[in-house]
């Protein structure tokens, strides 16, 4: 009986380890629908690129309200907004 109980515990731990390990595989966030309206630069606080493993290349824009919007990196207004955010972040840093 003890061997059976031990076998069940070992199988349960193996199953848990396997399912936890699979969660880490693959991108955390991908975009399948895109916001086509231009976003005001005053509303955006940051951005990040989605993983290269996503089927659609995208940029996630984070707004002051905490929302994340998917936009196409090829759009000219998106490129301008990224340049603006990069310049804003580098000019705000001070060297001590």
UniProtKB/TrEMBL annotation:
Residues 1-21 form the signal peptide. It is found in: Secreted. Keywords: Cytokine, Secreted, Signal. Pfam families: IL8 (PF00048). Residues 27-85 form the Chemokine interleukin-8-like domain. GO terms for molecular function: chemokine activity. GO terms for biological process: immune response. The keyword Transmembrane helix does not apply. SMART domains: SCY (SM00199). Its main location: secreted. InterPro entries: Chemokine_b/g/d (IPR039809), Chemokine_IL8-like_dom (IPR001811), Interleukin_8-like_sf (IPR036048). Belongs to the intercrine beta (chemokine CC) family. PANTHER family: C-C MOTIF CHEMOKINE 3, SMALL INDUCIBLE CYTOKINE A. This is C-C motif chemokine ligand 17.
């Amino acid at each position: 009986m003890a061997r059976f109980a031990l076998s069940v515990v070992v199988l349960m731990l193996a199953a848990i380890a396997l399912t936890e390990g699979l969660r880490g595989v693959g991108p955390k966030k991908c975009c399948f629908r895109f916001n086509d309206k231009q976003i005001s630069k005053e509303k955006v606080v940051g951005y990040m690129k989605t993983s290269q493993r996503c089927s659609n290349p995208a940029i996630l824009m984070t707004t002051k309200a905490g929302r994340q919007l998917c936009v196409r990196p090829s759009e000219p207004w998106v490129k301008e907004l990224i340049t603006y955010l990069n310049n804003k972040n580098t000019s705000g840093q001070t060297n001590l």
